[in-house]
Amino acid sequence: MANGKPTDHLTNFVVVVGRILIALIFVRAGINKIASIDATAAEMAKSGIPLSNILVFGAITMELGGGLLLMVGLFARWAALALFFYTLTLALIFHAYWAAPDAQARLQASFFFGHLSMMGGMLVVVAFGAGAYSLDALVRQKA
Question: Which residue from 18, 89, 100, 103 has the fewest beta carbons nearer than 10 Å?
Answer without folding.
Answer: 103
